[in-house]
Design goal:
alpha+beta; four-stranded mixed β-sheet; 6 helices
């Protein structure tokens, strides 16, 4: 992504995710990365049409991957969960499973699309729509 990160200092980690998705919400809530990176900002993409429009312009479909901004870089989809796995807290079953699935970029690339499909099916079953990417 060519635009600057959302946070102006580039030091806070910012996660842009789907706030209507129960899996996405739970994932970012239980992720224990504050211990390792300090400030973490959670941004619900459904409340930020400007970001969704920006992502779409830059070829990133928010319905196919969350976006993480950290230290002046942008991470999308499997790269975002790979980064979060590397930054995550080291204790607990969730962290262990997360590291197992996402710390290896190749494995993250294989597992992440399955998570995206699961998210879309769950939203449909719940009667919720995908995030609007066009106006």
């Amino acid at each position: 992504m060519k635009d600057a990160p959302l946070n102006d200092t580039g030091t806070a980690l910012e996660i842009v995710y789907d706030g209507d998705c129960p899996f996405c919400t739970r994932f970012v809530e239980i992720y224990r990365i504050r211990k390792n990176v300090g400030s973490v900002k959670l941004t619900n993409a459904r409340e930020r049409a400007d970001l969704v429009e920006r992502f779409t312009r830059e070829g990133l479909d928010i319905n196919n991957g969350m976006v993480v901004f950290w230290q002046g870089h942008t991470y999308y989809g499997p790269d975002s969960v790979n980064l979060l796995a590397m930054l995550g807290a080291e204790k607990g079953a969730f962290s262990a499973l997360n590291r197992l699935l996402f710390k290896n970029k190749r494995v993250a690339g294989l597992v992440y699309p399955l998570m995206v499909k699961g998210r879309k099916l769950t939203l449909k079953a719940m009667g919720r729509k995908l995030i609007a990417t066009e106006r």
